[in-house]
Amino acid sequence: MPSIGHIAVGAAAGRIYGRKLPPEHLARAMVLLSAASLLPDADGIAFRLGIAYGAPFGHRGATHSLAAAALIGVLTGLVGRAFGWPTGRTTLLATVVAASHGLLDTMTDGGLGIALLWPFSNERFFAPWRPIPVAPIGLGMLSQRGLSVLAFELAFFSPLFLFAFWPRGQE
After folding, report:
1. How far is C-alpha 82 from the geometric centre of its chain's CA atoms?
2. Is residue 30 classed as helix, strand or coil in its secondary structure?
3. Which of 54, 58, 70, 141 is the most buried (most CB within 10 A)?
4. What is the pLDDT of residues 111-129, one digit of tens each?
C-alpha cells in the first residue's frame, strides 16, 4: 500500500486528538501521528541491506507487528510529552495509529502478508477482505500501475482526508 492511506489515518487521528490541545498544536499532532502511522514502512531499507522480503526483519515483517506499534506508541508519547501533551493519551492513540498500518496492509491484494504477531510468531497474515491494491515498491510507484494505485488510495481514503482537513471554526 502506498503511504497515502497511512497519512490519512494519522492526519484524521491528529485532528481528533488536536481538539484537546491548544489550537497551535493541531498541525503538530497531525504530523506526529502521520509519522507514527508511516514509521512501519521504514523497513523498506531492508531491501538495500540485503534482507529477504520474507525474513522476520524484511518488508512487512517485525516493524508491521503489534509489538512494534506499541514501541512506536511509547516513542511518540515521549515526543508528545516534550510538547506538554498527556503522555498516556498520546501513547495510546499513537499505538492505535501505528497498529493501523499493519492492519491496513493486511487488506492489500498482494505481497507475503503481515507479521502482526512478531516476536511470538513469524507467520504472516492477510485480512479476509482485501480491497486495497498492493503498490509497486520504489520507483515502480511512478509506473502506470503505481499511479493507478495512488489514485485508488486517494479516492478510498478521501473521507479521512476530508475529515482531517475540512475547515472548521474553533473546536
Report:
1. 22
2. helix
3. 58
4. 999 999 999 999 999 999 9
